[in-house]
Design goal:
Layout: E1 6-9, E2 12-15, H1 26-30, E3 33-41, E4 44-45, H2 48-61, H3 70-83, E5 91-98, E6 115-122, H4 128-133, E7 135-141, H5 156-167, E8 172-177, E9 180-184, E10 188-193, E11 196-199, H6 210-221, E12 226-228, E13 231-232, H7 233-237, E14 241-246, E15 250-257, E16 260-261, H8 269-291
The structure holds N-(5'-phosphopyridoxyl)-D-alanine.
Length: 292
Amino acid sequence: MSETVIVYLNGDFLPLDEAKVSVLDRGFIFGDGVYEVIPVYGNQPFRLEHHLQRLQDSLNAIQINNPLSTNEWKDIITHIIKQNKDGGSDQSIYLQITRGVARRDHSFPDDTPPTVFVMSTPLNPPEQTLLNSGIDAVTLPDIRWLNCHIKAISLLPNVLFRQQAIDAGATEAILLRDGMATEGAASNLFIVKNDVIITPAKSSKLLPGITRDLIVELAVSNGIQCEERDISETELRNADEIWISSSTKEVMPVVKLDDLEVANGKPGPIWSKMYQLYQACKASLRSAAAAD
Ligand code: PDD
């Protein structure tokens, strides 16, 4: 990563420490905005079309007009990747759109341009030791609103969930609503029972994860049975394997839930297979990029 991190803010590329927004920005005042996190391997954004589609869905849901075309988004992201590729590490692109700067009033302001911000941070894959040992999770009541499919920047519940997990000596929180498991604090949820992968169906109770969708696709194309349906708390606690997935954590095995071992307390064989399939996808993106 170069010494000077270059970011995009409202039409300009500039050093991170020169990027400033008004304290009246509705992102700062109300958390009124949406975001995306896009992994970049071999300088290629992974599943960019999927991320831009989910961004559009989030913008539609909160009634912000997309300020940029798909090609403009691609150009900005490509430029940010190029500007920050020193050192050759993989990157994580964070982009955020808020409803812009206006006098504080809950109702939408008239004719205010949205604030658009894009940055890159180095992306390190989960450490091998952590993958070998697996991670611990705790269950928590999912007290969020019923629009969890929107990738909103207002993440206070998620921040508190994650911190509660860490305070309990775990890595992630797995959320329970009405006796059903929904997702993690910043990840989607999978279980395995009798060699079948199960993940909650998409709904307003969870984020439609891009990594989740890829895992479902990989299962189907590799002949692993996969069901998208509710997971009850009892099923969660009796699972043969539990995994979490996200663009930054990829797919990680959970080996302890609320201090009790998941099955034999070791990462399971179906996780191991899925992890390899996921790594193969990353590798093919890198080799396609190298061939260009
Ligand atoms: N979060 N569910 C929640 C609540 C999330 O915040 C995330 C990702 C996911 C997984 O989605 P995806 O596979 O598209 O990354 C599910 C990102 C990584 C974050 O907030 O940093």
